[in-house]
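## retry 2 of 3
previous attempt timed out at serialization; input unchanged, resubmitting
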Amino acid sequence: MKHRRLTKKAIFWRVLLVTIGATLMATSLELFLVPNHILDGGITGISIILAHLTGWRLGIIIFLLNLPFIYIGYKQIGKTFAFTTLYGIFVLSVASILLHDVMVVTDDLLLDTVFGGIILGVGVGIVIRYGGSLDGTEVLSILLNNKLPFSVGEIIMFFNFFIFATAGFVFSWERAMYSIITYFVAYKVIDIVIEGLDESKSAWIISDHAEEIGDAILARLGRGVTYLKGEGAYTGDDKRVIFCVITRLEEAKLKSIIDELDSSAFLAVANISEVHGGRFRKKHIH
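## retry succeeded, writing output
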Protein backbone atom coordinates (compact mmCIF):
# COMPACT_ATOMS: atom_id res chain seq x y z
CA MET A 1 0.00 0.00 0.00
CA LYS A 2 1.37 3.41 -0.96
CA HIS A 3 2.32 5.62 1.97
CA ARG A 4 0.17 8.76 2.15
CA ARG A 5 2.25 11.93 2.50
CA LEU A 6 1.54 14.44 5.25
CA THR A 7 -0.09 17.69 4.19
CA LYS A 8 1.87 20.93 4.47
CA LYS A 9 -0.32 22.00 7.38
CA ALA A 10 0.32 18.71 9.21
CA ILE A 11 4.07 19.01 8.61
CA PHE A 12 4.06 22.62 9.91
CA TRP A 13 2.28 21.67 13.14
CA ARG A 14 4.48 18.63 13.64
CA VAL A 15 7.68 20.65 13.19
CA LEU A 16 6.41 23.44 15.45
CA LEU A 17 5.28 21.16 18.29
CA VAL A 18 8.34 18.90 18.13
CA THR A 19 10.47 22.07 18.33
CA ILE A 20 8.54 23.21 21.41
CA GLY A 21 8.76 19.77 23.02
CA ALA A 22 12.49 19.39 22.44
CA THR A 23 13.15 22.93 23.69
CA LEU A 24 11.17 22.22 26.87
CA MET A 25 13.26 19.12 27.52
CA ALA A 26 16.47 21.10 27.01
CA THR A 27 15.15 23.76 29.41
CA SER A 28 14.45 21.12 32.04
CA LEU A 29 17.91 19.60 31.68
CA GLU A 30 20.00 22.76 31.61
CA LEU A 31 18.04 25.00 34.01
CA PHE A 32 16.86 22.45 36.57
CA LEU A 33 18.40 18.99 36.49
CA VAL A 34 21.99 18.94 35.18
CA PRO A 35 23.34 21.86 37.30
CA ASN A 36 22.15 19.99 40.41
CA HIS A 37 23.43 16.59 39.24
CA ILE A 38 19.93 15.14 38.84
CA LEU A 39 19.40 12.64 36.02
CA ASP A 40 16.68 11.47 33.71
CA GLY A 41 16.61 7.83 32.64
CA GLY A 42 17.68 6.27 29.36
CA ILE A 43 20.21 7.66 26.90
CA THR A 44 19.76 11.14 28.40
CA GLY A 45 20.87 9.84 31.81
CA ILE A 46 23.93 8.18 30.29
CA SER A 47 24.70 11.42 28.44
CA ILE A 48 24.55 13.46 31.67
CA ILE A 49 27.02 11.10 33.36
CA LEU A 50 29.39 11.15 30.36
CA ALA A 51 29.18 14.95 30.11
CA HIS A 52 30.16 15.20 33.78
CA LEU A 53 33.09 12.77 33.40
CA THR A 54 34.45 14.07 30.07
CA GLY A 55 33.62 17.79 30.19
CA TRP A 56 31.92 17.60 26.78
CA ARG A 57 28.74 19.57 26.12
CA LEU A 58 25.63 17.57 26.99
CA GLY A 59 23.90 18.43 23.71
CA ILE A 60 26.72 16.94 21.63
CA ILE A 61 26.77 13.68 23.60
CA ILE A 62 22.96 13.31 23.44
CA PHE A 63 23.03 13.75 19.67
CA LEU A 64 25.90 11.30 19.08
CA LEU A 65 24.54 8.56 21.38
CA ASN A 66 21.08 8.70 19.82
CA LEU A 67 22.23 8.43 16.18
CA PRO A 68 22.44 4.58 16.14
CA PHE A 69 18.95 4.34 17.64
CA ILE A 70 17.52 6.70 15.02
CA TYR A 71 18.82 4.30 12.38
CA ILE A 72 17.26 1.35 14.24
CA GLY A 73 14.00 3.30 14.46
CA TYR A 74 14.14 3.92 10.70
CA LYS A 75 14.43 0.16 10.08
CA GLN A 76 11.98 -1.02 12.75
CA ILE A 77 9.29 1.69 12.89
CA GLY A 78 9.51 3.81 9.75
CA LYS A 79 10.86 6.82 7.91
CA THR A 80 8.47 9.39 9.37
CA PHE A 81 9.33 8.33 12.93
CA ALA A 82 13.07 8.41 12.18
CA PHE A 83 13.03 11.89 10.61
CA THR A 84 10.80 13.30 13.36
CA THR A 85 13.12 11.82 16.00
CA LEU A 86 16.25 13.08 14.23
CA TYR A 87 14.82 16.60 14.05
CA GLY A 88 13.67 16.50 17.69
CA ILE A 89 17.06 15.33 18.98
CA PHE A 90 18.82 17.94 16.82
CA VAL A 91 16.67 20.71 18.34
CA LEU A 92 17.24 19.24 21.82
CA SER A 93 21.00 19.23 21.30
CA VAL A 94 21.18 22.78 19.92
CA ALA A 95 18.85 24.17 22.61
CA SER A 96 20.89 22.39 25.30
CA ILE A 97 24.10 24.02 24.05
CA LEU A 98 22.47 27.48 23.86
CA LEU A 99 21.00 27.19 27.37
CA HIS A 100 24.14 25.78 28.97
CA ASP A 101 25.36 29.10 30.38
CA VAL A 102 21.93 30.42 31.42
CA MET A 103 21.52 30.91 35.17
CA VAL A 104 19.65 28.10 36.93
CA VAL A 105 16.10 28.83 38.15
CA THR A 106 16.54 27.54 41.72
CA ASP A 107 19.02 25.67 43.91
CA ASP A 108 16.28 23.95 45.91
CA LEU A 109 16.67 20.25 45.13
CA LEU A 110 13.02 19.39 45.68
CA LEU A 111 11.81 22.19 43.38
CA ASP A 112 14.41 21.21 40.77
CA THR A 113 13.30 17.57 40.96
CA VAL A 114 9.56 18.22 40.68
CA PHE A 115 9.49 21.09 38.19
CA GLY A 116 12.34 19.63 36.16
CA GLY A 117 10.38 16.38 35.91
CA ILE A 118 7.15 18.17 34.96
CA ILE A 119 8.77 20.27 32.20
CA LEU A 120 10.71 17.24 30.96
CA GLY A 121 7.53 15.14 30.85
CA VAL A 122 5.58 17.80 28.95
CA GLY A 123 8.37 18.14 26.38
CA VAL A 124 8.86 14.41 25.82
CA GLY A 125 5.08 13.81 25.78
CA ILE A 126 4.53 16.41 23.05
CA VAL A 127 7.22 14.86 20.85
CA ILE A 128 5.87 11.31 21.34
CA ARG A 129 2.32 12.51 20.64
CA TYR A 130 3.48 13.92 17.31
CA GLY A 131 5.29 10.83 16.14
CA GLY A 132 8.86 11.06 17.41
CA SER A 133 11.09 10.29 20.37
CA LEU A 134 13.83 12.11 22.28
CA ASP A 135 15.53 9.04 23.72
CA GLY A 136 16.77 5.92 21.96
CA THR A 137 16.20 3.58 24.89
CA GLU A 138 12.60 2.81 23.88
CA VAL A 139 13.68 2.02 20.31
CA LEU A 140 16.37 -0.37 21.61
CA SER A 141 13.86 -1.93 24.02
CA ILE A 142 11.42 -2.63 21.17
CA LEU A 143 14.24 -4.35 19.25
CA LEU A 144 15.38 -6.43 22.26
CA ASN A 145 11.77 -7.30 23.11
CA ASN A 146 11.71 -9.58 20.05
CA LYS A 147 14.79 -11.46 21.28
CA LEU A 148 14.37 -11.50 25.07
CA PRO A 149 11.55 -12.87 27.26
CA PHE A 150 10.86 -9.44 28.78
CA SER A 151 8.37 -6.68 28.01
CA VAL A 152 9.45 -3.27 26.68
CA GLY A 153 8.67 -1.70 30.07
CA GLU A 154 10.75 -4.30 31.93
CA ILE A 155 13.74 -3.75 29.63
CA ILE A 156 13.55 0.05 30.08
CA MET A 157 13.33 -0.37 33.87
CA PHE A 158 16.35 -2.71 33.76
CA PHE A 159 18.40 -0.09 31.87
CA ASN A 160 17.37 2.69 34.20
CA PHE A 161 18.24 0.66 37.30
CA PHE A 162 21.87 0.54 36.20
CA ILE A 163 21.86 4.19 35.12
CA PHE A 164 20.60 5.41 38.51
CA ALA A 165 22.97 3.02 40.32
CA THR A 166 25.86 4.48 38.33
CA ALA A 167 24.66 7.98 39.22
CA GLY A 168 24.92 7.00 42.89
CA PHE A 169 28.63 6.26 42.47
CA VAL A 170 29.41 9.22 40.15
CA PHE A 171 27.45 11.92 42.02
CA SER A 172 25.92 10.73 45.30
CA TRP A 173 23.17 8.37 46.45
CA GLU A 174 21.10 11.37 47.46
CA ARG A 175 21.25 12.69 43.87
CA ALA A 176 20.39 9.21 42.57
CA MET A 177 17.25 9.14 44.73
CA TYR A 178 16.23 12.61 43.54
CA SER A 179 16.78 11.36 39.98
CA ILE A 180 14.38 8.48 40.53
CA ILE A 181 11.73 10.95 41.74
CA THR A 182 12.29 13.09 38.63
CA TYR A 183 11.97 10.03 36.41
CA PHE A 184 8.61 9.00 37.89
CA VAL A 185 7.25 12.57 37.81
CA ALA A 186 8.23 12.85 34.14
CA TYR A 187 6.78 9.39 33.42
CA LYS A 188 3.35 10.33 34.79
CA VAL A 189 3.33 13.72 33.04
CA ILE A 190 4.19 12.03 29.73
CA ASP A 191 1.11 9.82 30.16
CA ILE A 192 -1.08 12.86 30.83
CA VAL A 193 0.24 14.72 27.77
CA ILE A 194 -0.18 11.71 25.47
CA GLU A 195 -3.58 10.57 26.76
CA GLY A 196 -5.00 13.98 27.69
CA LEU A 197 -6.66 15.14 30.88
CA ASP A 198 -10.17 14.41 29.61
CA GLU A 199 -9.76 10.64 29.51
CA SER A 200 -12.53 8.79 27.72
CA LYS A 201 -13.94 5.36 28.53
CA SER A 202 -15.50 2.66 26.39
CA ALA A 203 -18.50 0.81 27.79
CA TRP A 204 -19.76 -2.60 26.67
CA ILE A 205 -23.21 -3.60 27.94
CA ILE A 206 -24.98 -6.93 27.43
CA SER A 207 -28.64 -6.93 28.46
CA ASP A 208 -32.03 -8.34 27.54
CA HIS A 209 -33.27 -4.73 27.70
CA ALA A 210 -30.65 -3.35 25.30
CA GLU A 211 -32.96 -0.93 23.45
CA GLU A 212 -34.31 0.60 26.67
CA ILE A 213 -30.80 1.12 28.01
CA GLY A 214 -29.60 2.49 24.66
CA ASP A 215 -32.46 4.98 24.48
CA ALA A 216 -31.80 6.07 28.07
CA ILE A 217 -28.09 6.63 27.38
CA LEU A 218 -28.98 8.73 24.33
CA ALA A 219 -31.64 10.76 26.17
CA ARG A 220 -30.06 11.15 29.62
CA LEU A 221 -26.33 11.19 28.80
CA GLY A 222 -26.48 12.62 25.29
CA ARG A 223 -24.14 9.89 24.03
CA GLY A 224 -24.65 7.88 20.86
CA VAL A 225 -24.72 4.09 21.09
CA THR A 226 -23.99 1.26 18.68
CA TYR A 227 -25.81 -2.09 18.80
CA LEU A 228 -23.79 -5.19 18.01
CA LYS A 229 -24.99 -8.77 17.57
CA GLY A 230 -23.61 -11.35 19.96
CA GLU A 231 -24.14 -14.98 20.90
CA GLY A 232 -23.76 -16.55 24.32
CA ALA A 233 -21.10 -19.28 24.15
CA TYR A 234 -22.74 -21.33 26.92
CA THR A 235 -26.44 -20.87 26.13
CA GLY A 236 -26.24 -20.17 22.40
CA ASP A 237 -28.80 -17.37 22.84
CA ASP A 238 -28.67 -14.30 20.61
CA LYS A 239 -27.61 -11.20 22.53
CA ARG A 240 -27.58 -7.50 21.70
CA VAL A 241 -24.42 -5.73 22.83
CA ILE A 242 -24.38 -1.97 23.41
CA PHE A 243 -21.17 -0.09 22.76
CA CYS A 244 -20.71 3.58 23.70
CA VAL A 245 -17.94 6.02 24.61
CA ILE A 246 -18.27 8.29 27.65
CA THR A 247 -16.08 10.52 29.79
CA ARG A 248 -14.95 9.42 33.25
CA LEU A 249 -17.36 11.92 34.84
CA GLU A 250 -20.29 10.17 33.14
CA GLU A 251 -19.40 6.66 34.32
CA ALA A 252 -21.37 6.87 37.59
CA LYS A 253 -24.52 8.03 35.79
CA LEU A 254 -24.16 5.27 33.20
CA LYS A 255 -24.04 2.69 36.02
CA SER A 256 -27.14 4.18 37.64
CA ILE A 257 -29.04 4.01 34.32
CA ILE A 258 -28.12 0.34 33.90
CA ASP A 259 -28.99 -0.55 37.50
CA GLU A 260 -32.34 1.18 37.12
CA LEU A 261 -33.33 -0.61 33.89
CA ASP A 262 -31.61 -3.99 34.25
CA SER A 263 -29.67 -4.69 37.44
CA SER A 264 -28.50 -8.06 36.05
CA ALA A 265 -26.94 -6.53 32.91
CA PHE A 266 -23.26 -7.18 32.15
CA LEU A 267 -21.11 -4.02 32.04
CA ALA A 268 -17.43 -3.70 31.11
CA VAL A 269 -15.67 -0.31 31.17
CA ALA A 270 -12.17 0.39 29.83
CA ASN A 271 -9.97 3.47 29.46
CA ILE A 272 -9.40 4.99 26.01
CA SER A 273 -6.50 7.34 25.37
CA GLU A 274 -7.98 9.05 22.28
CA VAL A 275 -11.24 9.26 20.32
CA HIS A 276 -11.40 10.36 16.68
CA GLY A 277 -14.29 10.73 14.27
CA GLY A 278 -17.71 9.14 14.57
CA ARG A 279 -20.41 10.76 16.70
CA PHE A 280 -18.56 11.14 19.97
CA ARG A 281 -19.56 14.79 20.37
CA LYS A 282 -22.08 15.08 23.19
CA LYS A 283 -25.66 15.95 22.24
CA HIS A 284 -27.67 18.46 24.23
CA ILE A 285 -29.86 16.91 26.92
CA HIS A 286 -32.78 18.55 28.69
